[in-house]
Specification:
TonB-dependent receptor plug domain-containing protein; receptor; Plug_dom_sf; tonb box; membrane; 947 residues; 5-stranded mixed sheet; mainly beta
Length: 947
């Protein structure tokens, strides 16, 4: 069966790809992915099957050939390169990452981008986002990206857009594929192999896919930009938690801070590492501060293994049974420097004056003081490992029939998705054992033992711990006693029952009126069960309590396609679409969301399209049911007298709240403005959270001139407004609302110590407070020449221009403009674009791709260092130094050749010219944002064999 489409239809169906030329065979592929439905297809964004691939909404399609030209081993990397994407978590997230990768259309957050697989929902995380690493790239036939809201069609989460991953279908034969690549530094190796087998009979088809992907780590110390905590500042930003044992409370006339230097010889009994006070020296940052950056991963390692099955059996000529199943296992890891363990700095675990290892012990002539200490456990890095097993099963019936000379299609099905995750944490300390280990100890029978009091009973099983050892000198016996391995378990699952009917109603001047109706019953559940020690708060890491919850919902939707005119002057086509969806949730109630769209062709070569849509996002499991957890937060207390921007109103409100004269904030980085809280703040869920609401608008043109066959140009304007946006207020926002605006509801979230007014706790819980407005343009061009004596040439441009991305903390708050600015983990590029040139000559092909990110500016956190580009900048409110992140263009190239034995080989290089990312001083780690490429040229080779 062949789709009969006009050039413009092909333009809309194909759209553009990110960094590669789209195959002109996509419309045929679309038709082949359906059952025998009279050439009718279903395009993402509508449930109505039609012979026309055009819709009123902009849809970008990346077919398998386009994906293969990028030399990537995961669908996440492919999607994170498209121009409409913003900032999503990926493998460059080490501290704060969990091995998952996500897509965030319009930079609105991954939980506001709906991800479908074969038009059906996939399993999401507790936070509502889909980990694209649970979907193996080997099974993908194409990806359709709807760049518009679609809650009326698909329900929750489709605010920024929809990503629909279509898996391979009706495949016959066998295909084997292998990929190997690495960076020019000799690291970051990637190996992948996959095999796809398919068989057909007169009434059935089955496809089996196997894949294995191994992606190795890159260390932060292996790249210049990430080898120090802050690029350009060297040892000034190293950690005061030295790898050498450090004393923080020297006596009168002594240095306030002392360290024992490497190379010191223990002065205790044989085999006991005790160091005398004469072996300590004053702490000097230049030689004693610790550079923790090289110990971290820059690019985290990951291994993925998957098995995929998909089958169809035609029960009759018009009824088919369909089923598919997938198993995917991801093993990933992150690594941080050894734990900065301490006693007395931020807890009460002082080294006892009666400890054998305390140099002030009275048996050595000291004063018997308890010691405030620290020691970074470089003897054991902190390693966080994930083993994530994802299961998917779908089974259903679908068919078609004719009634009264009208076509109808239907389907009923059941889907079950589950993700089981086991996390292992290595390198955290058991603080109960630390407390015992730094307690009283003494020598008995030639060995050091823990005692309940000097000369008292031995504490069996206890190993005395010497935190004042120089770097690397903590014994294995001590490590085995104080360290522990945590085991956390997570689960996310959903069950979905769907029934859909679509067909034709009546003949109108423009064609047959079409409709689609359907019902859906869905149940979402999940839990997070931390290790018992973690939940109890007995570890050196952040404590958190279990999370568990579920909700269910019932939905019904209807969609109508109204072709008003066709083939008349001024209206080669005029068509309207209307849809509405009613959703009833067990936790917050019901909501109805509708859409209206139009499609108008004043003449055959020009399409005008537009859409207006309501949308919503239901609060996910973690928002509703997250257990209380600790968070050590960087913040500035606006009641502190050294806080910049302190006003008389703030000062008066702080004084009324009990702030003493001369109050100064105390933090883990010392005294002064903006540091990490000494005591953890509390984060948790909000069972009263409600849905977000949105309104989306698009208006666009698609032009396919007859004088240039193969040329397609599209321009789309889009606008999204989100109200009741869910978010967790930051410490700064809570304090501003309390002490600046006098909102007592926010004041109630702050707990201060009565003794010194220091903040000891702050309740950080998600709330429906904010407003987000974003607007921009998508401009796309594709051109493919006819075959010439020199082969065929193709050109594509896929670009997204952001006009506005503004947010308000509350509807009454001042608007914050984000476009062109950089914040931690949040680059707000004004322009992203991908352009490619593709040349095919017989069995040879060559593709050159350029990926562009526009420049950004950020506040300069290190004025006076000479690092920021504009340190002398002054605004109406005073000095405002900032730093510019320059524009970046990456170049990728791939050459390929079709071999005579039905094989093909591809050689390529991504970031061909080894472009460095721009330095970002607001970046959490590595001094650059993880949305930029890891520094270095990645070269690869792929081989494909077909049978």
């Amino acid at each position: 069966m062949t789709l009969k489409t006009k050039p413009l239809s092909k333009a809309v169906a194909l759209s553009l790809c990110s960094g590669a030329v789209l195959s002109t065979a996509v419309p045929a592929a679309l038709a082949q992915s359906t059952t025998a439905t009279l050439d009718r297809i279903e395009v993402t964004g509508s449930r109505i099957r039609s012979v026309d691939a055009e819709t009123s909404q902009p849809v970008l399609v990346l077919d398998r050939a386009a994906i293969e030209k990028q030399g990537l081993t995961s669908v996440a990397e492919v999607l994170q390169r498209i121009s409409a994407n913003g900032a999503g978590i990926n493998r460059t997230f080490n501290n704060g990452g969990d091995g998952s990768s996500e897509v965030s259309l319009r930079n609105l957050g991954s939980s506001r981008t709906l991800v479908l697989v074969d038009g059906r929902r996939w399993v999401s995380s507790l936070g509502g986002s889909v980990d694209l690493n649970t979907i193996p790239a080997a099974v993908i036939e194409r990806v359709e990206v709807l760049k518009d809201g679609a809650s009326a069609i698909y329900g929750s989460d489709a605010i920024a857009g929809v990503v629909n991953i279509i898996t391979r279908d009706n495949f016959e034969g066998a295909e084997f594929r292998a990929h190997y690549g690495q960076f020019n530094h000799g690291d970051g190796e990637r190996n992948s192999v996959d095999a796809t087998l398919g068989a057909n009979s007169d009434r059935s088809n089955i496809v089996v896919g196997l894949s294995r992907v191994e992606e190795k780590a890159v260390m932060a110390g292996a790249r210049r930009i990430s080898a120090d905590p802050v690029f350009g500042l060297g040892s000034s930003q190293y950690s005061g938690y030295s790898a050498n044992g450090r004393i923080w409370n020297g006596g009168p006339g002594e240095e306030d801070s002392l360290v024992v230097r490497p190379g010191s010889t223990p002065s205790g009994v044989a085999g006991d590492p005790r160091y005398g006070l004469d072996q300590f020296a004053p702490f000097e940052a230049a030689q004693d501060a610790y550079n923790f950056a090289p110990d971290n991963y820059l690019l985290t390692p990951q291994t993925r293994t998957s098995l995929y099955l998909k089958g169809r059996y035609d029960i009759t000529d018009n009824i088919s049974f369909r089923a598919d199943a997938l198993y995917n296992e991801r093993r990933s890891a992150q690594q941080l420097a050894g734990f900065p363990l301490n006693g007395g700095v931020s807890n009460d675990y002082l080294l006892s004056g009666d400890s054998y290892y305390n140099p002030y012990n009275t048996i050595y002539g000291g004063d018997g003081r308890d010691v405030v200490w620290s020691h970074r456990l470089t003897e054991q890095a902190r390693v966080y490992e994930q083993n994530v097993k994802t299961f998917h099963v779908y089974a259903g019936l679908e068919g078609s029939f004719e009634f009264a000379n009208r076509f109808f299609g239907w389907e009923v099905g059941y889907g079950h998705n589950k993700s089981d995750q086991q996390d292992t944490q290595i390198g955290d300390a058991n603080m109960l054992n630390v407390a015992a280990g730094v307690g009283p100890s003494e020598v008995r029978d030639g060995r050091v033992v823990c005692v309940d009091a000097p000369g008292g009973n031995i504490i069996e099983g206890c190993v005395p711990f010497n935190p004042l050892s120089p770097a690397g000198a903590v014994t294995q016996e001590m490590l085995d006693y104080i360290l522990f391995t945590a085991q956390d378990t997570f689960q996310n699952r959903n069950e979905i029952f769907t029934a859909n009917l679509n067909g034709e109603i009546m003949e109108l001047p423009g064609g047959m009126m079409g409709f689609a109706v359907g019902v859906e019953r869905r149940k979402e559940s999940g839990f997070d069960r931390p290790d018992a020690f973690v939940a109890a708060g007995y570890t050196s890491g952040n404590a958190r309590l279990p999370t568990a919850g579920q909700y269910d919902l019932d939905e019904i939707y209807a969609e109508l396609l109204i072709p008003v005119l066709s083939g008349v002057p001024g209206a080669d086509l005029l068509e309207f679409s209307i849809a509405s969806r009613y959703s009833d949730y067990s936790n917050f109630g019901d909501t109805t969301n509708s859409k209206f769209g139009f499609k108008w062709k004043p003449f055959d070569q020009l399409l005008v399209r537009g859409n207006w849509a309501e949308g919503f996002r239901a609060p996910p499991i973690s928002t509703l049911f997250r257990g209380r957890a600790d968070s050590f937060t960087n913040f500035g207390d606006i009641c502190s007298e050294d806080f910049g921007g302190r006003t008389p109103t703030i000062a008066a409100n702080c004084a009324a709240a009990g702030a003493p004269a001369g109050f100064i904030q105390q933090t883990n980085q010392g005294f002064g403005y903006f540091g990490q809280t000494i005591y953890p703040f509390s984060i948790g869920g909000n069972p009263d959270a409600g849905p977000e609401n949105s309104t989306s608008k698009t208006l666009g043109l698609v032009y396919s001139p007859s004088f240039a066959t193969g040329l397609n140009i599209s321009l789309d304007w889009w606008q999204i407004e989100i109200t009741n946006a869910l978010g967790t207020p930051t410490a700064a926002q809570i304090m501003d609302q309390c002490y600046n605006l006098g909102d007592q509801a926010f004041c109630s979230l702050i707990t201060r110590r009565a003794s010194d007014f220091q903040i000891s706790d702050m309740q950080l819980t998600p709330q429906n407070l904010s407003v987000i407005e974003t607007e921009g343009f998508d401009f796309n061009v594709s051109y493919r020449t006819q075959e010439t004596r020199y082969g065929s040439f193709g050109f594509t441009l896929d670009s997204a221009y952001m006009v506005k991305w503004n947010s308000r903390f509350t509807p009454a708050s001042a608007e914050e403009e984000m476009v062109g600015k950089y914040f931690e983990y949040d680059p707000n590029w004004r322009l992203r674009a991908n352009a490619s040139i593709d040349w095919n000559y017989g069995d040879f092909g060559l593709t050159w791709t350029a990926r562009y990110h526009s420049s950004l500016v950020e506040d300069c956190p290190f004025p006076g260092t000479g690092l920021c580009s504009d340190e002398d900048r002054v605004t109406a409110t005073g000095p405002a130094p900032r730093n510019k992140l320059g524009a970046v263009t990456y170049h990728d190239v791939q050459a390929r050749y079709e071999l005579p034995w039905n094989g093909s080989i591809r050689l390529g290089a991504n970031n061909l010219f080894k472009k460095e990312p721009p330095v970002a001083f607001q970046a959490f780690a590595n001094s650059f944002d993880p949305q930029y490429d890891v520094p270095g040229r990645y070269t690869y080779m792929e081989y494909v064999q077909r049978f």
